[in-house]
Specification:
This protein is mostly beta strands and 110 residues long. The protein contains no helices and 9 strands. Strand 3 and strand 4 form a beta hairpin.
């Protein structure tokens, strides 16, 4: 499922309802030149997911630096960071692309 969410600049962050638990989410700020962030449950199966890959680096470096954290929920994900990379000034838009953990169980997971 692809879409966008609006930042709220809160440490509880916005909740994005996907209708399924994600296996992989890719997130990027729309209004800025920030990098793509790749979060997955294969390398980090438990919440809080603070291990991610940078998408615009030659080495696709794995990182846990800073306050770039999300939780994968049964029906979507929640940004739990007020950092500028995923949840900056209230109202800023972020694009996301997410794939389901168990897609065959959900009709809206494709």
């Amino acid at each position: 499922k692809f879409g966008e969410y609006k930042a709220n600049a809160s440490t509880s962050g916005p909740h994005v309802n996907l209708g399924f638990k994600p296996k992989l989410c890719i997130i990027k700020a729309i209004e800025s030149g920030q990098t793509w962030f790749f979060f997955d449950s294969a390398r980090h199966p438990n919440n809080t997911i603070d291990l991610y890959l940078y998408g615009q680096r030659s080495d696709l470096a794995e990182s846990t630096a800073g306050t770039i954290d999300i939780d994968f929920l049964g029906n979507g994900f929640r940004v739990i960071s007020s950092g500028t990379d995923l949840n900056s000034t209230s109202g800023h838009a972020y694009a996301y692309m997410c794939w389901a953990d168990i897609p065959q169980n959900f009709s809206n997971a494709y």
